[in-house]
Amino acid sequence: MGYTNSPLVVHTKLSPNHSGQRTHSIDRITPHCVVGQLSAESICGCFTSTSRQASCNYGIGTDGRVSLCVKEKNRSWCSSSNANDQRAVTIECASDMNEPYAMNSAVYDSLVKLCIDICKRNGKKKLLWLGDKNKTLNYAPAADEMVLTVHRWFANKSCPGNWLYARLGDLAARVTAALGGSSSSGMQASSLKNLSEAEAVAKIGPLFTANQKTTGILACVSMAQFILESGYGKSELAQNANNCFGMKTSLSGNSWSGSSWDGKSVYPKKTQEQNTDGSYVTITADFRKYACVEDSIADHAAYLLGAMSGSRKRYEGLAGCTDYKKAAQIIKDGGYATSHTYVQNLCNIIERWNLTQYDAVKDSESTTISGWYRVRKSWQNAASQKGAFHDLTYAKQCADKNPGYYVFDPAGKAVYPEPKSSVPYTVRVSIKDLNIRKGPGTNYGKTGYYTGKGVFTIVAESAGAGSAKGWGKLKSGAGWIALDFAARI
Predict the structure, then answer these.
(1) Using an 8 Å Cβ cutoff, are 64 and 1 in contact?
(2) Highest mean pLDDT among 83-97, 328-342, 388-402, 410-424
(3) Does the pLDDT at position 365 exceed 90?
(4) How much is the pLDDT for 370?
(5) Which residues pair with 480 in a beta bridge?
(6) Tell me, what DSSP letter sits at residue 303?
(7) What is the rounded distance in angstroms from the CA atom of residue 232 to the CA atom of residue 432?
(8) Torsion 408-485-101-6 (CA) sign
(9) CA gap 350, 244 in Å, rounded
(10) What count of other Cβ atoms lies within 10 Å of the Cβ of residue 475?
């Protein structure tokens, strides 16, 4: 096919680091965090030296300007995966230096525009975010589909950072809407219709834990709002519009950034409003319609964080508040709800379901994790969760009742059924660039060497940050590798 480059480019500095023309047509986009508030020119400058052995197709500077580093027809060296980079347009985006590697609105808006342009020029009408590594890598896109992938699926990295990772559903929805297509990525409220209340709570819980990690809004409070306003995701508005918080098209302070609503999808519905004297009046209002539940959650959080009342934020003090009663009062006082019993209603729901179990907490090393044992098919598959427990005994009982499920500790390590730990044993590594570290965890430094593909002997195991299956010590003495990327033989 004939390849072109984006007309959005304002600076070009081509990198020598690429593999020549692609061996696969473009059907993926892989956005990255560059880890620095760099300009478009500086991003290109990172890849001009052959000693760097890295590159990207496009860069987006901190002011939103776009640069070209490797022509779209060529395979860049960006994602630690030859197979991915052969078919993906890779984009390095200016970001903060530390997790969650947040990007400003200029960068994010340019990323949306660049993805729209990439899709249009490559004949795509949909951009999909499937949210799961195995599902995505085994998915065969239709001729008019583009798929989002992430660097962390191919290497021991956080990239693109939790800030952008949490917004990839929004990115896909915005781009697809602009292309005139429709996306089925993300959770649909219809999947909650036939669940019990307890099952619905367990299914949505991980979505709110993830939301708190990126927004600082207590998961239990947002979950209680979800339950109260959508009837566990079963209300007319939720089922027909994925709108789980009663978000209208026009809201006070309707000028916040980061909204995941496409600005045009509407669901009209009659609703009751309470007057200051306690009486009710029925009105017909236009409500926002979302592509998925995650978009509804993201837009709700963006509103709470960014809505203004004059020169001040309506919900000042909500982000980072760890007292759910105080957080609920902040929301009520900001004018979110007219009901006089709104705060008590939220607190009753939180206490009934012990929703604080889904709140993200800080461990001793300031790593954001949830402090509960979770029963899932895999740590990455949050939607499969059967429950979360303080007591390991109850978590084990839940796993025993659900064959194929495992108990994961707060750090994401499988602890039951007890994994085999007899050593030595051999593993097969199928990627060429698996990092070897000086100790068992991503908190240990890299040795500067990779395993390469092959069979290796593990002589010791240890739990550690960055690998759900733990870490294995190489018999050669070279160091430790993440067992997530090694198949036991």
Answers:
(1) no
(2) 83-97
(3) no
(4) 41
(5) 437, 473
(6) H
(7) 46
(8) negative
(9) 17
(10) 14
Q: Where are the beta strands (DSSP E) in 46-204?
A: 58-60, 66-68, 74-76, 88-93, 126-128, 145-148
Determine the Cα–Cα distance for residues 300 and 412; give it in Å rounded to an integer.
Answer: 27
Tell me whether the omega of the peptide bond preceding residue 419 falls within 30 degrees of 0, making it cis: no
| Per-residue model confidence as pLDDT tens digits over 119-132 | 999 999 999 998 88
Residue among 292, 305, 232 at smallest CA distance from 262: 292
CB 164 within 8 A of CB 215: no
Positive/negative CA dihedral, 389, 391, 395, 398: negative
Strands 406-408 and 454-462: unpaired
Concatenating the DSSP letter of every residue in 404-449 gives T-EEE-TTS-EEESPPP--SSEEEEE--TTPEEESSSSTTSPEEEE
Check residue 404 and give its pLDDT.
79
Signed CA dihedral, 210, 211, 214, 216: sign only? negative
pLDDT band at 69 (very low <50, low <70, confident <90, very high): very high
**pLDDT at 380 (0 to 100):** 63
Token pair for residue 422? 């007899």
Which residue's structure tokens are 């047509």?
25
Cα separations in angstroms, 460 against 156, 415, 450: 20, 17, 19
Please report, for residues 202, 217, 243, the alpha-carbon distance to residue 307 in angstroms, rounded to integers and kept in the order given: 30, 14, 18
3-state secondary structure of 476: coil
**E-strand stretches of 259-365:** 266-274, 280-288, 308-309, 312-313, 360-362
163, 197, 250, 467 from 104: Cα distances, Å: 10, 38, 24, 29
Beta bridge partners of 127: 146
How far is CA 81 from each of CA 1, 407, 484, 486, rounded to the nearest angstrom? Answer: 23, 31, 16, 16
SS3 (DSSP) at 5: coil
Name the pairing type of β-strands 145-148 and 126-128: parallel
Cα–Cα distances (Å) from 384 to 203, 204, 211, 233, in that order, read 7, 10, 18, 17
Rounded Cα distance between 217 and 209, Å, is 9
**pTM of the prediction?**
0.44
Tokens of 240: 């027909």
Q: And the tokens for 161? A: 């950072």
In whole angstroms, what is the distance from residue 134 CA to residue 3 CA?
29
For residues 330 and 327, what is the distance between their CA atoms, to the nearest angstrom?
5
